[in-house]
């Protein structure tokens, strides 16, 4: 299967540090790897409504939900590019993941089987100089990948407060060059050791 990367941008502003860092990493992908970029501030998802147990719950085809659904099932690699907000994912990025819960229960979709073995990655900008404060976000993505039977490539972290700051984080720019070449083992929950 040709690799196809879906970049889901979850910042609440455009041209922010998270996107800049994600684009630096994406520049290194080989030309035959397809890329699709969806900015959730331009293609917003409506509030997630929990219809998992309603029988008339159907595969989404319309609007931004349909767009995100189609893009997700078409991707071999999903990159959640979310700034660190309150030590975790931004609300738009979190809402996108909430939709996965609905898709898991959508009749005829078999979302879990479709996504199993594919790879989840994260890219995050944060203003704190202590990277470990991003552990809740990293844990949320790792555990989500483990739940889905997906691979997890880890999270590329970059420092910055105002847009453009991350371009001064030389360590992050160096890590961006090889980030997507990194290993992405099958994700495991921490209790699995
Ligand atoms: C709502 C909000 C919450 C934030 N929470 C954190 C935080 O918990 N830790 C941190 O280091 N930075 C925090 N920041 C700073 C952002 O992570 C930082 O400005 C980052 O560069 C934003 O990414 P962006 O440029 O891609 O939008 C927060 C910013 C906002 C707007």
Automatic annotation (TrEMBL):
The NADPH-dependent FMN reductase-like domain, residue ranges: 5-121
InterPro entries noted in UniProt: Flavoprotein-like_sf, FMN_Rdtase-like_dom, ISF_SsuE-like
PANTHER family documented for this protein: NAD(P)H-DEPENDENT FMN-CONTAINING OXIDOREDUCTASE YWQN-RELATED
Keywords of the record: Flavoprotein, FMN
A family per Pfam: FMN_red
Name of this protein: NAD(P)H-dependent oxidoreductase
């Amino acid at each position: 299967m040709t690799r196809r990367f879906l970049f889901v941008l979850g910042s609440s502003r455009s041209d922010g540090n998270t996107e800049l860092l994600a684009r630096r990493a994406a520049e290194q992908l080989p030309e035959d790897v397809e890329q699709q970029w969806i900015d959730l501030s331009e293609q917003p998802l409506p509030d997630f409504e929990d219809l998992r147990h309603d029988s008339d719950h159907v595969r989404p085809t319309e609007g931004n939900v349909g767009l995100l659904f189609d893009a997700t099932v078409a991707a071999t690699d999903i990159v959640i590019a979310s700034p660190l907000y309150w030590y975790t994912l931004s609300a738009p990025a979190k809402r996108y993941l909430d939709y996965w819960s609905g898709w898991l229960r959508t009749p005829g979709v078999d979302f879990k089987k479709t996504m199993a073995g594919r790879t989840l990655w994260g890219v995050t900008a944060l203003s704190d100089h202590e990277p470990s404060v991003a552990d809740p976000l990293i844990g949320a993505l790792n555990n989500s990948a483990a739940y889905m039977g997906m691979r997890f490539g880890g999270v590329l972290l970059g420092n910055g407060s105002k847009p453009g700051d991350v371009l001064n984080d030389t360590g992050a720019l160096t890590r961006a060059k090889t980030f997507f070449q990194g290993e992405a083992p099958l994700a495991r929950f921490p209790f699995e050791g």
